[in-house]
Design a protein that fits this description.
Elements (H helix, E strand, L loop, with lengths): L1 H14 L4 H11 L2 H17 L10 H20 L30 H9 L2 H11 L5 H8 L3 H39 L1
Helix pairs in contact: 2-3, 2-4, 3-4, 4-7, 5-8, 6-8, 7-8
């Protein structure tokens, strides 16, 4: 029996542990440092618990990120507030989570963090997996449980939303700068 656990431990160390940095990096884009550590710990606990179901012929990185996605969703569901749905289905309301402010600190510029935190969850997750996790469309599709075309659309739409938000932030800064100059000129 001891040999079984030794083999399993060795296989887990060879297969899953090399992806620890990437899993943390993706988790860090979703939350502050403390919460990211908790997400990674829970991800690896679940990975160890269900390692017997992992098929070595598949992509371990994608499998771990799928577990991270599930852990993150479980945590979000746990803290989610009940928000009434709008009458018009075209309007999408994404709840705000206090821990999303941690996204802004250290890892991203304030503007990019702010814009990323304003994206609806499916677009944020797709952009993070593509641009931070550097996963292929196929890997992201498997993780998100949707067709590749949907992944491509979500990444494209997410990036366009980010660009629009960043442009609007730049315009706000420019307006504030103009107002400051005009105020100084009046003095």
């Amino acid at each position: 029996m001891k040999a079984f656990w030794t083999r399993r431990t060795d296989r887990f160390a060879r297969t899953a542990l090399p992806h620890l940095d990437l899993v943390y990096q993706v988790a860090r884009q979703l939350a502050d440092a403390h919460t990211a550590e908790d997400l990674v710990q829970e991800t690896y606990l679940r990975a160890w618990k269900y390692f017997h179901t992992f098929d070595p012929a598949t992509n371990c990185r994608a499998w771990l990120l799928r577990i991270l996605h599930n852990v993150w969703n479980d945590r979000c569901r746990h803290f989610r507030l009940e928000i009434p749905l709008p009458e018009n289905e075209a309007t999408f309301v994404e709840p705000y989570y206090e821990w999303e402010d941690g996204l802004i600190r250290n890892e991203l510029s304030q503007e990019v963090g702010r814009a990323l935190s304003e994206l609806p969850g499916v677009f944020r997750w797709a952009v993070i997996l593509a641009d931070v996790g550097e996963l292929s469309y196929q890997e992201i599709a498997e993780l998100m449980g949707c067709p590749i075309g949907t992944v491509m659309s979500r990444i494209n739409r997410g990036r366009r939303m980010l660009a629009r938000l960043l442009r609007s932030y730049a315009e706000e800064v420019a307006r504030a700068s103009d107002l400051t100059k005009k105020a100084k000129e009046k003095l």
